[in-house]
Amino acid sequence: MSQTAQITVPATTANIGPGFDCLGAALTLYNHFTFTPADTLTISISGKEADRLSTGPDNLVYKSYETFYHHLNKPTPPVQIHIDLHVPLSRGLGSSSTAIVGGLVGANLLAGNPLSQNEIAALATDIEGHPDNVVPALLGGCRLSVQGENDELTLCQIPWHESIIPIVIIPDFELSTAAARQVLPGSYSRNDAIFNTAHLALLTQALASGNGEWLTKALCDRIHQPYRKTLIPNYTDIYSNALASGAWGLVISGAGPTLLALASPETAPRVSQNLGTPWQANNIPYTVHPLAIDPHGTQAHLID
Questions:
Q1: Distances in whole angstroms, Cα of residue 197 to Cα of each of 15, 71, 191
Q2: Domain 4-159+293-303 falls in which CATH fold?
Q3: Which of 21, 22, 48, 135 has the greatest CB tally within 10 Å of its CB?
Q4: Tens digits of per-residue pLDDT, 247-276?
């Protein structure tokens, strides 16, 4: 009797200000995947945006599943896949990373776990192109991923102090990662490189210590946010609202358009209530979710 692999993968928020393409954290919002050996490929999808995803072999979950077997130089066994969506698509919360990690971990579990977590992280990074989302989606927590001279990955867990509450505000419009990358310049000044290096170093200390004053300073960035914020309506007003309501800071989550506010347990309710006022005034629907950092990452189980 064949066994089914059940995989749960958390959403992620990446960059977190100055940590462009190298820093991300797993959030308590999840997509679920099941993989059952079958005679032919079948894919079914449930959830709010299910009708927007392919149920054919170009589905990213299946393509990642297939990549796993190609990596082992083995034929891809046919499979029945079910996807249960809860992470919004193209909103800067790592929905594609959940698909990549889900497909790889599902294949690895059905194959008897021949690859280690680090090997899966490296393969996921190859598929995604950068590690900032896939690594925390796989391993949980807040993770700094460093690619070496030969593209080998060094993965570093960054402690996230319990007093720092992540709050996401998700608008009802999309921003593709490709569009968000097109607005970035091709090169940066030495001053901007030094600025971001220093602020990322401070950010790791602010997250670990819960020092709100450091956090406010550390979230500043010159690599991506000054350019991407022009693609997000009312960004400046929402940023001002967040700080006026007591948040330590507000940044673009991933490539956007979701925004991430960081607040104390005391100010989080007020921040959550006031964040979206500018979008509300401009008739842009949105949802606000006070979340937590998922410490576990992807969960995988075999069931009969």
A1: 13, 35, 10
A2: Ribosomal Protein S5; domain 2 (3.30.230)
A3: 135
A4: 999 999 999 999 999 999 999 999 999 999
Residue 2, pLDDT > 90, answer no
Burial of 295 (C-beta count, 10 Å sphere; 0-12/13-18/19+) = middle
Contacts of 164 (CB under 8 A, 6+ apart): 207, 210, 215, 248, 262, 263, 264
* Cα angle: 155, vertex 161, 164; to 5 degrees: 115
Q: How many angstroms separate the CA atoms of 271 and 243, rounded?
A: 8
Work out the number of other CB atoms within 10 angstroms of the CB of residue 52: 11
Looking at domain 165-290, its CATH class is: alpha beta
Cβ proximity of 5 and 109 under 8 Å: yes
